[in-house]
Amino acid sequence: MSFTDKAKNKAQQLTGVAKERIGDVTDNERMRAEGANEQSAARARQAGENVEDVGREARDKFR
């Protein structure tokens, strides 16, 4: 996973946190849901990229 990918995922996750908190403060359920969705998407993408990295490392060890 490249540094750029990590930064994008972290930015999306932080945006999701901000939206969720704004939704809490303003009692806006839609904003709260958008924030939670963005956080989940960023975590899922990060997990997928981590799996790719582990796969590459395992492949390189067997070569």
Report on this model:
With 63 residues, the chain is an all-alpha fold. The chain contains two helices and no strands. It starts with a helix and ends with a helix. 6% of the residues are buried. The mean pLDDT is 92.
Keywords:
mainly alpha, elongated, 63 residues, single chain, 2 helices
Strand content: under 5%
CA-atom Rg in angstroms? 16 Å
Major sheet: none
Count of individual beta strands? 0
Number of helices: 2
Structural class: mainly alpha
Helix proportion of residues, in percent? over 70%
* Gross morphology: elongated
Run of helices and strands = HH
Mean pLDDT: 92
Low-confidence stretches: none
Describe the oligomeric state of these chains in a short phrase. Answer: single chain
Q: How far is it from the N-terminal to the C-terminal residue, by CA? A: 20 Å
